[in-house]
Amino acid sequence: MTGEERREKIVALLGAADGALSGGDLAQELGVSRQVIVQDIALIRREGVEIDSTHRGYVLSRRDVPRRAFKVRHREDQVQEELDLIVDLGGTVEDVVVNHRTYGVISVPLNVSSRRDVARYLADIATSKSTPLSRITSGYHFHHVTAASEEILDEVAAALKEHGFLVERLPYEVSSDLN
């Protein structure tokens, strides 16, 4: 297989994946080293294909689908309920963002699109010394959510509101870079 064919296969694998694919997984699938995959990803990006890197691996960017920022607040023991609610309705939680008065806007990619992704994320938190990012802002945080349609995003908003998670934005947050 040529390098060009391998890069086409990487894009196809990422497009067909339910979640992130690690460099190691791609390397094993294609019979090359992880370093070759890293170099291929750089070349693919140079060709204009938008690939996001997450702590779990690579995903094709979802910038071409409907996207909305939701401001939410909940207790730490409600993280699973919030994320399950979003993915069950067909949303993908791209990231978690906090707007800290001292540190500014902090954003971390999540790319959670299934209950399996939610379980992995919660396991990562539980097995590390880390805590949810929203802890530094008393539970207030934002999620950018993508979905196949605006109607799904409307359903996500309604469900978050119904469960008491959705919070109104402050005036300075409405026109900020959190959108």
Task: Describe the overall structure.
- The chain is an alpha+beta fold and 179 residues long.
- The chain has 2 domains: 3-60, Arc Repressor Mutant, subunit A, CATH 1.10.10; 67-174, 2-Layer Sandwich (Histidine-containing Protein, Chain: A).
- The chain has 7 helices and 6 strands; from the N terminus they run αααβββαββαβαα.
- Strands 3-6-4-5 form a 4-stranded antiparallel sheet, covered by helices on one side. A two-stranded antiparallel ribbon has the order 1-2.
- The chain is elongated and about 55 Å long.
- The chain starts with a helix and ends in a 5-residue tail after the last helix.
- The model has no long low-confidence stretch (mean pLDDT 88).
- This is Transcription repressor NadR.
- InterPro entries: 3H_dom_sf, 3H_domain, HTH_11, NadR, WH-like_DNA-bd_sf, WH_DNA-bd_sf.
- Residues 71-166 form the 3H domain.
- Residues 6-58 form the Helix-turn-helix type domain.
- Keywords: Metal-binding, Nickel.
Question: Quick recap of the structure?
Answer:
With 179 residues, the chain is α+β, with helices and mostly antiparallel strands.
For the record, what is the CATH homologous superfamily label of the largest domain?
3H domain
CATH architecture of the largest domain: 2-Layer Sandwich
The structure class reads alpha+beta
Q: Give the number of helices.
A: 7
Give the rounded overall mean pLDDT.
88
Strand order of the largest sheet: 3-6-4-5
User: Mind telling me the CATH class of the largest domain?
Assistant: Alpha Beta
| Strand percent estimate | 15-25%
Ends distance: 42 Å
> How many structural domains in the coordinates?
2
